Structure formats: structure tokens, C-alpha cells
């Protein structure tokens, strides 16, 4: 291949990837730089008439010494863990069912994508209607079946609100783990199950000794992706509870939103956002170490 041809191909590659690089710079790198800059100043619209003084790391110090910040952080950990567990378990059950040979399987596979296709804000509004204390379907069925004696304001009770926002998001996002697990299940050789059945292995032992080991890497991938997307999620909790009642569902993303758009303290909100981004980078680093490192060793 001539030097001119190599040069042309190199230039073509740069031209093809340049739009993606430009978009990445505009929507990711530039906002991070602006946020870092704002976090070093007392950038508060309520006190802006007195100037925007440089305060260094004071916003970061205020964040890590704030009890509300750590309360929201612990809520975020709980929210993330509950979503990961729920989506993994529910997604695995649905994937196992879809992996069976049943009629209309393609219809079922298409149907499970419906929750994923619905916008998060729309899904949250639907769940609010279902949980409405006066004419919601959940209260209606619970009353008819005798589980409760009076209507319950599900999203107005701190404990129930925490439970229902997790259920709503698990329902919305479980198709991701289902697709990942279903793809992995279809790669398992059928001969392994046939040999195990000939040896008298029960379905449960087949699951533990054949299915689960084959799914281990898929579970790591799905858990990591769900963790990343749940940790910084915002829409469903904000639409359903706005972090209430009494801050019972307040997570870092809603806390940062309130600091920025209720207290108008954009400097403090920027510092808290960068702390959250740092935590996410640690999670991504763990993912790359566990998954990519394992791939290289194999």
C-alpha cells in the first residue's frame, strides 16, 4: 500500500470519528470543565449581587460535612442496591422462562421490551395513577382481596414510598438484564443439560452447576451497567415523590437538583455533582478491571 493511500485512509478515519468526538466534547467534557470551574466559586444566584468570590475547595468541604448530603448518599446506596438486586432477579426469572420452547415466544420477547420503550417520566406518571389513594388500581385490588381495610397513600408514607419507587424502576428497567441473560442462556450447549439429566441431576442442580456458572460474567456486566445507570438516575423518583415524603426517597441526584434549582447554589451543586461523578468513575474502573481484565487473561 502506498504512502498516499495510507495517508488518505488515516484522514478518512479522522473525518469519520470527528463528529462523535465533537459531540463527546460538547455534551460531556465541556460541562465537566464548567462544573469544576463553578465549584470553586460561591456561585449563588441569591447572593450574586455581592459578587462571585473564589472560595477554593469550600464547596467540597461543605458537601462532605453535610449530614443531608450523606443521608442522600446512603439513600442512593440503598436505592442502587435494591434496583440491582430486583432487576437481576426479575430479569433472570423472565430470561429463564423465555428460554423455554413455548408457542408465541417471539410475541413474549417483544412484549418484555414495552416497559423499556416507555419514557421514564411517563412510566412514573402511570405508577402514580396506579398508586393513587382514592382511585388507584393497587388500593382497589388490595381492598377487594381484603389485604387492607382502608385506602393507603402509598407515596405519602416514607417506608411504602421507598418500596414502590424501587418496584416502579425495576419494572421499567428489567428488560436490560433479561436481554443480557437470554443471550447468555442461548449460548449454553444443550448437551450439558442432557448429560446431567442422564446422570439423574435435578433441575435445581442443573441450574446451580451449569446455568449459573455460564451466567457469571453476564451477571457482572448487567450488575455494573444497572449500578451506573441507577446511581445517577433522576426522572422516576423526581416525578413520583420529588425525594419525599420527609426526604425518605431523597437520593444524590434529587439532592443536587434541589440545591441548584431550589436554593440556587450552583457552586455547591457543581461540587456535589463532581463528587457523584467521581464515585461513578470508581464504579466504571471496577467494571473495566473485573470484565476487561478477565477477557485479557482468557
TrEMBL record:
Keywords on record: Cell membrane, Membrane, Transmembrane, Transmembrane helix, Transport
Cited InterPro entries: ABC_transporter_permease (IPR051393), MetI-like (IPR000515), MetI-like_sf (IPR035906)
Transmembrane segments: 12-38, 77-98, 110-130, 206-231, 266-289
CDD domains listed in its UniProt record: TM_PBP2 (cd06261)
Any single GO CC term annotated in Swiss-Prot or TrEMBL for this entry: plasma membrane
Residue ranges annotated for the ABC transmembrane type-1 domain, each copy included: 73-287
Localization annotation: Cell membrane
Superkingdom in the source lineage: Bacteria
Membrane topology note: Multi-pass membrane protein
PANTHER family the UniProt entry points to: ABC TRANSPORTER PERMEASE PROTEIN, INNER MEMBRANE ABC TRANSPORTER PERMEASE PROTEIN YCJO
Family: Belongs to the binding-protein-dependent transport system permease family.
Name by which UniProt lists this protein: ABC transmembrane type-1 domain-containing protein
Source species: Marispirochaeta aestuarii
Amino acid at each position: 500500500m502506498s504512502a498516499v493511500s495510507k495517508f488518505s485512509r488515516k484522514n478518512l478515519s479522522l473525518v469519520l470519528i470527528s463528529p462523535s468526538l465533537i459531540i463527546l466534547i460538547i455534551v460531556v467534557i465541556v460541562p465537566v470543565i464548567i462544573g469544576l470551574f463553578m465549584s470553586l466559586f460561591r456561585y449563588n444566584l441569591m447572593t450574586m449581587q455581592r459578587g462571585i468570590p473564589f472560595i477554593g475547595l469550600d464547596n467540597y468541604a461543605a458537601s462532605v460535612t453535610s449530614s443531608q448530603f450523606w443521608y442522600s448518599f446512603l439513600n442512593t446506596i440503598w436505592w442502587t442496591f435494591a434496583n440491582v438486586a430486583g432487576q437481576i432477579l426479575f430479569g433472570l426469572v423472565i430470561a429463564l422462562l423465555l428460554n423455554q420452547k413455548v408457542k408465541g415466544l417471539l410475541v413474549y420477547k417483544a412484549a418484555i421490551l414495552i416497559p423499556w420503550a416507555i419514557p421514564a417520566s411517563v412510566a412514573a406518571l402511570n405508577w402514580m395513577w396506579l398508586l393513587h389513594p382514592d382511585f388507584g388500581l393497587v388500593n382497589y385490588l388490595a381492598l377487594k382481596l381484603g389485604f387492607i381495610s382502608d385506602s393507603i397513600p402509598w407515596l405519602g408514607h416514607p417506608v411504602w414510598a421507598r418500596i414502590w419507587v424501587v418496584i416502579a424502576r425495576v419494572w421499567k428497567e428489567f428488560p436490560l438484564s433479561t436481554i443480557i441473560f437470554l443471550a447468555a442462556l442461548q449460548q449454553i450447549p444443550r448437551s450439558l443439560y442432557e448429560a446431567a439429566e442422564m446422570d439423574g441431576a435435578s433441575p435445581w442442580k442443573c441450574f446451580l452447576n451449569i446455568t449459573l456458572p455460564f451466567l457469571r460474567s453476564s451477571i457482572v456486566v448487567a450488575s455494573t451497567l444497572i449500578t451506573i445507570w441507577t446511581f445517577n438516575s433522576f426522572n422516576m423518583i423526581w416525578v413520583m415523590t420529588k425525594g419525599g415524603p420527609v426526604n425518605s426517597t431523597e437520593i444524590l441526584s434529587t439532592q443536587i437538583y434541589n440545591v441548584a434549582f431550589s436554593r440556587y447554589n450552583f457552586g455547591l451543586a457543581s461540587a456535589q455533582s463532581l463528587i457523584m461523578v467521581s464515585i461513578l468513575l470508581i464504579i466504571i474502573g471496577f467494571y473495566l478491571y473485573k470484565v476487561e481484565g478477565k477477557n485479557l487473561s482468557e
